Request: fold
Amino acid sequence: MKRLGLLLAALVVIAGALYVLLGFRIAVDGSGMRPRFIVRDRYAELEANRARQREDTLAAAPVAAIADPAPAVAEEPGPAREADPPAAVAHRASWPDFRGPRRDGRYDAAPIRTSWPAEGLPLVWKQPIGLGYASFVAADRRAFTIEQRRGEEVVAAYDIETGRELWTQGWDGAFVEAMGGDGPRATPTYHLGHVYALGALGELRALDAATGAVVWRRNILTDNGASNLSWGMAASPLIVDDTVVVLPGGAGGRSVAAYDAATGAPMWTSQDDVQAYTAPMLVTLAGVRQILVVSEHRIMGLTTGEGRLLWDYPWRTSNGINVAQPLLLGEDRVFISAAYGHGAAVVEIARQGEQFEARTVWESSRMKNKFTSSVLHDGYIYGLDEAILACLDATTGELQWKGGRYGYGQLLLAGDHLVVITESGDLVLVAATPERHVELARFDAIDGKTWNHPIIADGRLLVRNAQEMAAFDIRP
Reply:
């Protein structure tokens, strides 16, 4: 035992030295048990890449013809200020929210290519990126995300077609977590020419999507007297009418908070829950438009105007960790899933006058979404049960099949197919059929531990992790 202890201590020292001297870190997989990945920051490579992009842009066009501004310099305005209303222009938001327009992991804007070449989809571009687990949102042929770059959290805008960095907006802040990994978690939200970005330490900023200029800023933890979660703020901001809804988790009625989308002025707060890592959703259940929230110990529906509780349903895991997004199964049913010794359930919401009731339809241990979220197609639920893909009947909860080890990756639904990004960075195409597991194609897309959600926008499949980002042509 003494020798084992000394060996473990030596390994810790070696790992620490590698991290300090070379930027390398040994990272565990999604099980939390197996060291599988070597993670290193690529800041120098990233900075050199972006410098070349700027040089190429200057060389390719006369100075007077360059339309994109230089990266915005971080500014520190007051907590909130009046902002000009969004310009009266038609913005084309192809993927404005976390997991798509309805936050349900469904892409249905256009057909995708389903006959992938053996070598993989055509690569459009690939380049280094900062740390973190956020995904992209996309609008006006731009993709937006948030990254860790040295001692700053940085929101960046990229040209979808070329990968060129168009602007950045950063602020001091570094979230460091040895087990899960460093960097921001919450995918930004796009709305009417603004990008709403939340850092892992609670910094919330509204940015002009064209230039990256700060419109307003708050810190949702400071505002609401809340402590940060172990793995940081991860719930993407939600636009509800003229407000931005976030989940600081403050006590004394400050668990859910809404800010004016144009000015950042506080509008209302509600509930007392410690929050989890699931993003709020705007849904209609039992005929009532409402905000769907999953906290540390329950799922609930809140009114859109003031956050008043309509109904709730107990949902506890062994460590109070809820990450997966709920999934609407119709006009009055919600699917919810979690790992950490839990499983899945379908909850039916019934309305009697002004009163609501939440009752269990079925429960199952055959779908345990950990870091991923399920999708619905033709009455069947597809998702990762821990690290293995599975299909359940949405009406009964009966397991249809289980197969394909993809690690703790992510997936989205496109037509009759599932696009899966594995934990190790492979892209996989799977038929969305309840008959059996059918893997149609697979190729190596990006290197490193990949917990970030993929998106499809403007004919491009965009993926990223804490080391690389890439775009692939997925048009038919």
